[in-house]
């Protein structure tokens, strides 16, 4: 069993819900901001507000870590940072390989937040001969043919895929075959992976489309009128389907 599978088993044994795990990085980001301002303690209400959740949910989430705060005082910021960082595995050194160093990959390679959060960029790879050998953020771009060597020599734990859509699945198959079980996918495609491999997808275009939907509704645009029965007539079954859903 891999270290990551052991962590997942231990987490399940402690009964930490995946929804809570997903919120922990948000709490950690808020806590880091408090640290930068020199704040030593924070109430659950203040931290919840900074994280965009209600205080009851935050207290329940943190209780899974064994952190309950002190009545009338709140949470010690530095210790809570340590608790969450330890739970997320950020007290260890995680090697990351970025595959695809176009505009997005180049930006990711130069992101300073990786090192401060326990992530080390161990390799940059691309199939473009014009990019191979270039120095980006102090690292040399290697040819994609050396992917397996870079993963092995750099002890890569996480692969970041920032390739064009048509190349993403093949790259994913190779990193998984090389032993990587965590993938962060920026390519606009759904990746197929075997059981035991975790994939997180980041699709900026989808997020923008969701924001456009909400902007349209706030402005009383076509989407809002259509769902409320106003605007140009459309198939009756469309409205019925929406209402039934």
From TrEMBL:
DNA-binding residue intervals: 26-65
Entries under InterPro entries matching the protein: CoA-bd, NAD(P)-bd_dom_sf, Rex_actinobacterial-type, Rex_DNA-bd_C_dom, Tscrpt_rep_Rex, WH-like_DNA-bd_sf, WH_DNA-bd_sf
Pfam family, one: CoA_binding
Region (Disordered): 217-245
Every CoA-binding domain range: 89-190
Keywords: Cytoplasm, DNA-binding, NAD, Repressor, Transcription, Transcription regulation
Coiled-coil residues: none
Top-level taxon of the source organism: Bacteria
Basic and acidic residues composition bias: residue spans: 217-228
Keyword Flavoprotein annotated: no
Subcellular localization: Cytoplasm
Positions that bind NAD(+): 100-105
NCBIfam families assigned: PRK05472.1-3 (NF003989), PRK05472.2-1 (NF003992), PRK05472.2-2 (NF003993), PRK05472.2-3 (NF003994), PRK05472.2-4 (NF003995), PRK05472.2-5 (NF003996)
Quaternary structure (record): Homodimer.
Described function: Modulates transcription in response to changes in cellular NADH/NAD(+) redox state.
Name under which the protein is recorded: Redox-sensing transcriptional repressor Rex
Taxonomic source organism: Actinomadura parmotrematis
Record gene name: rex
